[in-house]
Design a protein that fits this description.
single chain, alpha+beta, five-stranded antiparallel sheet
């Protein structure tokens, strides 16, 4: 049983600290919920959970000390994450280990504005939103898909812009410049109307004048309440980075599982339907680069495990992702020849040659015979 992989992909966030409260490990769920905090060096539980800070539920306590002095799990408590825009979370903690005691925390999303000491799990009535950005974008709530043409209109464009720049507050002036450059003084009204419509689309049953669970107004701008929203691009990026890190540390089974999850999420270009929107170019290229790193690393793991069929599959995806990268194309041709698929290799080489000539007016600097000689040489 690959217990490290189980830890990484456990549905709830998991944080492990030592008896002094110093963070020893976090899984992907915790990284998503505690973004903006989790990568800081020498983290302590008090940095993550606002221990001993006036006005917080843990104002008079360190939660690690409480857990170590308690028999069994602590009651669940809701806290606001210290990082801006991270929303709220519910945590519980329990001690484990022998003489070198540690504490394990369970972390799950909270409901924005909910001040109860306890709440039902978020999948039983709390706000939830799932946003898929790879390929044609779509949005799902706890009640199902939020379908309709609105994603192709201004409210949908604004949502996609917020997703693209999800790590910061977007000033209203920036939205005006992007979407209403000729509006003049009416631009502020246009932004407000678009935000009102967007919130109605995301939360059709929200009470009048109630705070939005998903799009917050902050300091003359707007940002996503990311603790209440799952975005495939976030999960993808964290899985890629964790997979590459695990492989670098020699944890190949865990790394392969993380990279397989990442490549499964990547189902096409980021916001593919916005192919000509300049504001999406940089993030689309960044996601594509991460996908390339994941596919390359996963193919290398497959080769190391003598899984040539699996390696070929990853290289084929990588070759389609980077059609003009001649090193990638050469690696795929070599793999096909290594497996005896000579006719397929010949067809692919001709396709690659035509693409390259069309783009650059010349043939690649190698031909199929060069690749075959390389394979024969071992």
């Amino acid at each position: 049983m690959p217990y490290r992989a189980v830890f990484e992909f456990f549905p709830s966030g998991v944080v492990v600290v030592d008896a002094r409260g110093e963070v020893q490990g976090t899984n992907l769920g915790a990284k998503r919920l505690l973004r903006g905090l989790i990568d800081r060096p020498k983290l302590r539980c008090c940095d993550l959970f606002d221990c001993r800070r006036a006005g917080t539920p843990l104002a008079d306590h360190c939660v690690t000390e409480l857990a170590l002095s308690h028999t069994g799990p602590l009651p669940e408590v809701r806290i606001d994450v210290p990082a801006p825009g991270s929303g709220s979370i519910w945590i519980s903690a329990a001690p484990f280990g022998g003489s070198q005691q540690s504490v394990v925390f369970s972390v799950r999303p909270g409901v924005v504005g909910d001040r109860r000491r306890r709440t039902e799990p978020h999948w039983m009535g709390g706000p939830q939103l799932r946003i898929f950005t790879f390929g044609r974008s779509r949005v799902e709530s706890g009640e199902g898909p939020l379908a309709g043409e609105w994603l192709g209109h201004r409210p949908g464009h604004v949502l996609k812009y917020l997703i693209t720049h999800r790590d910061r507050v977007i000033p209203s002036d920036e939205l005006i410049e992007i979407f209403w450059p000729a509006a003049g003084p009416r631009g502020v009204t246009s932004v407000r109307q678009a935000m009102h419509t967007l919130r109605d689309r995301l939360e059709p049953h929200r009470a009048k004048h109630a705070q939005s669970a998903f799009v917050a107004a902050r300091s003359g701008g707007y940002e996503l309440q990311r603790a209440a929203i799952w975005i495939d691009a976030d999960d993808f990026e964290m899985s890629v980075r964790q997979g590459l890190k695990s492989i670098a540390q020699g944890e190949f089974e865990t790394g392969e599982a993380a990279l397989a999850r990442a490549t499964g999420l990547y189902r096409g270009d980021f916001l593919a339907e916005e192919a000509y929107a300049e504001w999406a170019f940089a993030e689309r290229d960044r996601m594509r680069d991460l996908a390339g790193q994941a596919l390359r690393a996963l193919s290398e793991v497959k080769v190391a495990n003598a899984d040539l069929e699996g390696a070929t599959e990853q290289l084929q995806r990588l070759a389609e992702l980077e059609p003009l990268d001649m090193d990638v194309q050469r690696d795929l041709l070599a793999m096909l020849l290594r497996r005896g698929r000579h006719a397929e290799a010949a067809r692919r080489h001709e396709l690659v040659r035509r693409r390259y000539r069309k783009a650059f007016g010349e043939d690649p600097d190698y031909d199929l015979a060069d690749v075959a000689a390389q394979v024969s040489a071992g």
